[in-house]
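Researcher: Next entry: Calmodulin-binding protein (Gossypium harknessii).
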Amino acid sequence: MLVDTRGNQTVLFPSPFKVDIVVLDGDFSLDGKNWSNEEFDRYIMKERTGKRPLLAGELVVTVRDGVGLIENIEFTDNSSWIRSRKFRIGARVAGGSCQGIRIREAMTEAFVVKDHRGELYKKHHPPTLGDEVWRLEKIGKDGVFHKRLASEEVHTVQDFLKMWVVDHAKLRTILGPAMSEKMWNGTVKHAKTCVMGNKHYVFRGPDYKVLLNPICQLVNAEINGSIYTTHNLSDINRAYLENLVRKAYANWCSLEEIEGISDEIGLLTQGDHPNHQQPMVGSSQYKVYMTDRLIEGYIQDEMQANREISPIYFNTSRENGVRLNMFPSNSDDDLTSPKSFITWG
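Model: Predicted structure:
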């Protein structure tokens, strides 16, 4: 607005005129009420070498009846590179005067300008399955860990978790000694907070059907017409089942995808829970997964209002050589591989 500073009233100038919008150094003091044109010009900021002009958009405003509207301007750089670390926006009459009348320049208060580059590199809490793997803690975008994982076709958080489940030793080897155990544990812990969703995957063969969750954890299996659940996995050759999981992992792109509760899941889990409740990853009555060494089972603790998942503890044995033992568990224990609540002997 064009105003008379003696009474702060809008001045209705007889004809329209142009005003340039510029960037000023935040150090320009407002104490000097009667600065000169030359002093104002000295504080106008220019872009850094090789950069775009500091302001983009409609930088020339037409003032009519004492009012001009700034509708579309944006900064192209942050203010961290100057001593004050702040900018001001200034306005001056184009050409320095209008019809021979000196109109003093205007300026805003000093302010910090930030950019969005930090947003582009932020980690996600929690991550999603489709997030790029560098969204995980301790893995920097385009850094050495990111490149090593990409060279092994581990591009997403889902890829990371699938390999962790099926072959965590290989995953650890890919990242190498440059990733300390503390960093490794932090990365795995962050990955395990991933939102799983409700998709499941079916791996079929002539005499088998294996149901997996999105990170290749075993849910159930049907082999030669028999349904195998967490309660009777010991009745089947463990090595055979592990091999099926590895084959499913190797052929992941060809697996049949199931979303939500389906007849397929119902068939493979029939009789596995009281009242025939259906399992869903992330909010299930239980889940089971298998690696080359371990099987783990979980059951929801009805006493926990926040629906946390707590472990099942087995303490029994079988004559066929399978030994089920009870172990204490703590969520802060070693995270380098899935914990075992069932040992085999």
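Model: Note for the record: Residues 261-345 have pLDDT under 50 and may be disordered.
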